[in-house]
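Z., the sequence and structure:
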Amino acid sequence: MSATEGHPEAVRFDGASKKYGERLALEPLTLRVAPGEIFALVGPNGAGKTTAIGLLTGLLAPTTGRVMVFGLDVSSDPLAVKRRLGLVPDRPWIWPKWTPREALRFTGAVFGMAGPALEERIETELEAFSLGDAADRRAETLSHGTRQKAALAQAFLHDPDLFVLDEPMVGLDPAAQRSLAGRLRERTAEGAAVLFTTHHLSLAEEIADRTGVLGEGRLLAAGDPRDLAGPRGMRGRLSEVFFGLTERS
């Protein structure tokens, strides 16, 4: 049985909410992402996107409801869930004195990879993200875009079943953006799932199978970004309906 076989849902939010004191950052969210699907979560600053990512990855505990990853409860089985994830947070970080190669070795060790197989895979990821010239330079000397590529290489290293990417294109040049989109498509064709956040509506329209629009902590609409149906008869491309949805939220 494959890693994703037998689980019709890669991601399942069941009324998951998050409060900070009296402030409700994310209203009860019900959302599904299937294996083989790329799902984009869009919304203005403060809409709840990063909070949703925190709940999905176990970095935050839901106030109500639950979050599941391939049938595993994120709250009750966090380590098993993390083994299935390839995560790039909104502020990816590498120890400043480490090189990208050293960061990849550490990531591989965390996921039980070792020896020649790990070294071969590291070379594959360094080449895939055009990191050859930066592979053995300390992270503190690298540009933001190069550190972003290193973080993405770490996420791909162990062939995760679910990619969770918070603003993954920030800092990447157009060639790197195109390469990343292509690699995500390759992995979803193999059964993996992708959930990513973005402020770039055109990016969501281009590469996402489905999109969810968040506004002030509420899911306002979800569906095909090229033909998105919203409340009050709104319908059209994501870029055509987004502002109407968020302005009325």
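The chain has eight helices and twelve strands. Residues 213 and 242 are 7 Å apart (CA to CA).

Let me know what you think.
H.
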